[in-house]
Structures are given as structure tokens and as C-alpha cells.
Design brief:
The structure holds two protein chains of two kinds.
Chain A: E1 7-13, E2 24-29, H1 34-44, H2 49-53, E3 56-59, E4 62-63, E5 75-79
Parallel strand pairs in A: 1-5
Antiparallel strand pairs in A: 1-2, 3-4, 3-5
Chain B: H1 3-15, E1 18-19, H2 25-30, E2 39-46, E3 50-51, E4 54-63, H3 65-82, E5 87-93, E6 95-98, E7 102-110, H4 113-130, E8 133-139, E9 144-146, H5 153-156
Parallel strand pairs in B: 1-5
Antiparallel strand pairs in B: 2-7, 3-4, 4-6, 4-8, 5-7, 8-9
The chains are: A alpha+beta, B alpha+beta.
Chain lengths: ~80, ~170
């Protein structure tokens, strides 16, 4: 039997993404990079596909690339396009 | 209040790029005089009473504050260096902001006006396009809408790449 190690990821979303997800939640999954996380969230809530496709991810208060590898207990911020000013 | 506490408070004020309380733009302007500066430009982005044909009561701003502060600091440092500004200050509100209140203020000062105007435009454009700050519009009819996202990715083909008017 294959036992997958499920890492804990803490996720925080902002602005309009709060209409689709809880503001903060934990994901227990074997996802390792930002691309996979985006796909996972789209599967979870297909209505958020468009906004997720134009949102950026950040870890440790820095934007990350799609191939960024998550570490256990990383807090991942999902940042939709800005509308400040 | 002792002078040492007062000067500490002034330092704290200088470093606050994100504010949960109303912006006192007159006080900000009052602190922005400098013997080397012949030109001071103040931009105040204020809440309009209408958006998309609807009456707006107020806006509510949300930010990823740590990232927004850090990015604001970098943008200001870059502008200050590029245009050799005497003063460059910017503050953005979070929370509820009423019609006619200032949501964002940018002050630039330089020996001559060209640099102060150009740098001010540069700073506000980058704030509006790049910072992780969002507004939600609350309308008279009881509805609300997360608003006016930056659409630059439609032109540049890449999220996080922007085009500016300045």
C-alpha cells in the first residue's frame, strides 16, 4: 500500500477570493508547487477559476514563481490583481 | 509628553505606509517643507460618490500589509533616487473610507517642479497597479463589489507585468 505523506499548508486569501474560499484555511495535501496548488483550488471551487488564473502566490511575504517548491508549514498568500488607490 | 517620545512618534509616522485611521493630508503637507525644495506636489486619491452608474456610500480597503509596506518602501526609494527628490512620502488607507476622504496620498518635493510632478505620477501609478491592496465598493442600493482590478495582464500577457500611463 502506498502511503502518501500529506503536508500541511496554511493558506490565506484576500479580497474577492474571500467570496470563494475561507479567508484562512489549512490544506493537507501532497502538493509541492504553486501550479499544482492553483489546479487543486480550481478543482475545489471551479467558480474561482478565472480569478485564480490571474492571481499571484506569495510565501514569506514575497511573490513566488509557479515552480516554487513549498515547505512544510509554509503560509501561502493568494494575491488577486490590485485595486488600490 | 517628553521630547524623546515625540521624536520617536515622528519616526513611527514616517515609516507608516499603510494606515487604518484617516489620512491628515494637511498635516502631511505641513511636514513636507524643505529649504532645498522649490516644488511640492501632493496627490490625494479620494473616494468618489459614484462608480459604474451606482451611488457609492463608502469603500473598504484591504491589504496584505507587510507586502504592501515593503513594496511601497521600495517604490519610494527608487523614485527618490531616480529623480533626486528632496522628499517622497506615500500612505494608503485600509478599512472603511468615506466619500471625499483620502484613500491614498503621495507627496513629492524637489528643487524644481518637473521632477516632483513626474515622480508623483510614477509613485501613484505603481501603487495602483502593483500593490496588494484592494477596494470593495459599497453602494446605496445595498450591494457591494470588489472593484477595479488591474487588467494589465490582458495587454502584457503576463500576470504581474504592467503598463503605465505616465
Amino acid at each position: 500500500m502506498l502511503i502518501l505523506y500529506l503536508a500541511i499548508m496554511k493558506i490565506q486569501v484576500f479580497a474577492v477570493l474571500k467570496d470563494f474560499f475561507d479567508k484562512e484555511f489549512e490544506l493537507h495535501d501532497n502538493i509541492t508547487d504553486a501550479s499544482a496548488l492553483r489546479e487543486r483550488l480550481v478543482q475545489w471551487n471551479p467558480a474561482a477559476a478565472t480569478i485564480l488564473s490571474i492571481s499571484r502566490f506569495a510565501v514569506n511575504d514575497e511573490f513566488i514563481d509557479n515552480d516554487f517548491q513549498f515547505k512544510e508549514n509554509d503560509t501561502i498568500y493568494i494575491i488577486p490583481p490590485g485595486s488600490g488607490g | 509628553m517628553t521630547p524623546s517620545i515625540l521624536s520617536h512618534q515622528e519616526v513611527v509616522d514616517e515609516l507608516a505606509y499603510i494606515s487604518a485611521s484617516p489620512l491628515d493630508i494637511i498635516a502631511m503637507l505641513g511636514k513636507s517643507h524643505n529649504p532645498r525644495a522649490g516644488a511640492i506636489v501632493l496627490f490625494s486619491g479620494e473616494v468618489r460618490n459614484h462608480s459604474n452608474g451606482k451611488d457609492v456610500i463608502y469603500l473598504e480597503y484591504e491589504a496584505q500589509e507587510k507586502m504592501a509596506s515593503k513594496m511601497m518602501e521600495e517604490i519610494i526609494a527608487e523614485a527618490k533616487n531616480k529623480w533626486q527628490l528632496t522628499i517622497a512620502v506615500a500612505v494608503h488607507r485600509v478599512g472603511k473610507v468615506a466619500v471625499c476622504e483620502s484613500a491614498v496620498a503621495v507627496i513629492t518635493a524637489s528643487p524644481h517642479r518637473h521632477e516632483a510632478f513626474t515622480a508623483n505620477r510614477y509613485i501613484i501609478d505603481r501603487i495602483k497597479h502593483e500593490l496588494p491592496i484592494w477596494k470593495c465598493e459599497y453602494f446605496q442600493d445595498g450591494s457591494k463589489q470588489w472593484g477595479g482590478n488591474c487588467n494589465c495582464h490582458n495587454i502584457t500577457g503576463e500576470v504581474g507585468k504592467h503598463v503605465y500611463n505616465a
